Design the sequence.
């Protein structure tokens, strides 16, 4: 869908009406989403990289594994720009403390950007104790700042290829571009084709309709769902084999389109219900919490 400030405002209103996410966090997400919209990255600007050959890709090797994702030259500057946008947000005081560490040389933003691209949680672990009021601030801020770059790199790698068509069903679970796990999915078309969205590069790709994307279970007796009458169009697809779930939207009979990251935020109450029932989500939310 075309993501615009107007669409963002509509989604935030819906989130405030339905979600258990605190208002302060919603305001932060709103500010980040607007910043990302204002700071896109043109895929044309992405340097050329060597992609996995077709045979290995068909066997499940990602087209461009995160380990070889190019690093943006302006990565540190993008993080600083986002921090400026969050200066008067509910995270303002902690953001100021974070930037103080940057200025004192205690946090290398260029290294943090590389760690975010690699998915290196160990790099960010020490900062959790340094910011107890917002322990995930550093990975959240850095990851949010590099998201437009990751999306552009994926688009550049794919070129004109569309991974949501019937002939591109990807049975390997992880993202066919970067290898990260899917964060959410949505059903499309008359037959309800299942499209997953990557948790890292946000590439949409077609997945098997009846398969757990995490352990690849296909036995129908092991696959179930959790939903709520308070959240029409949202459902958690569960797997009894690995006890994990993925959130999927089905708006085919509703007057709305899917914005995966905002759909995830709006339906956080379903995640709470799933945890109470013993289901696990193997990824963070689309917003890094």
Sequence:
């Amino acid at each position: 869908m075309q993501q615009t400030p107007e669409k963002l405002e509509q989604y935030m209103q819906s989130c405030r009406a339905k979600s258990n996410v605190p208002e302060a966090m919603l305001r932060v997400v709103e500010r980040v989403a607007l910043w990302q919209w204002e700071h896109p990255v043109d895929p044309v600007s992405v340097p050329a990289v060597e992609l996995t050959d077709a045979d290995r890709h068909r066997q499940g090797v990602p087209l461009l594994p995160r380990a070889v994702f190019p690093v943006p030259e302006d990565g540190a500057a993008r993080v600083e720009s986002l921090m400026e946008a969050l200066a008067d947000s509910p995270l303002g005081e902690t953001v100021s403390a974070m930037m103080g560490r940057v200025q004192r040389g205690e946090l290398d933003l260029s290294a943090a950007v590389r760690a975010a691209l690699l998915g290196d949680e160990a790099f960010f672990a020490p900062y959790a104790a340094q910011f107890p009021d917002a322990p995930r601030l550093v990975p959240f801020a850095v990851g949010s700042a590099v998201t437009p770059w990751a999306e552009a790199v994926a688009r550049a790698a794919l070129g004109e290829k569309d991974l949501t068509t019937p002939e591109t069903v990807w049975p390997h679970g992880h993202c066919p571009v970067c290898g990260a796990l899917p964060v959410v999915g949505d059903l499309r078309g008359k037959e309800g084709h299942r499209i997953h969205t990557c948790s890292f590069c946000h590439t949409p790709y077609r997945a098997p309709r009846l398969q757990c994307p995490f352990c690849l279970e296909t036995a129908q007796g092991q696959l179930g769902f959790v939903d709520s009458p308070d959240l029409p169009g949202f459902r958690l697809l569960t797997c009894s084999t690995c006890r994990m779930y993925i959130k999927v939207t089905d708006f085919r009979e509703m007057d709305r389109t899917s914005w995966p990251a905002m759909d995830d935020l709006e339906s956080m109450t379903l995640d709470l219900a799933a945890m109470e029932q013993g289901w696990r989500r193997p990824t963070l939310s689309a917003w890094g919490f």
Observations:
- The mean pLDDT is 93.
- Residues 166-276 form a domain with the FdhE-like fold fold (CATH 3.90.1670.10).
- The beta strands are 182-188, 193-198, 204-207, 223-227, 234-239, 244-249.
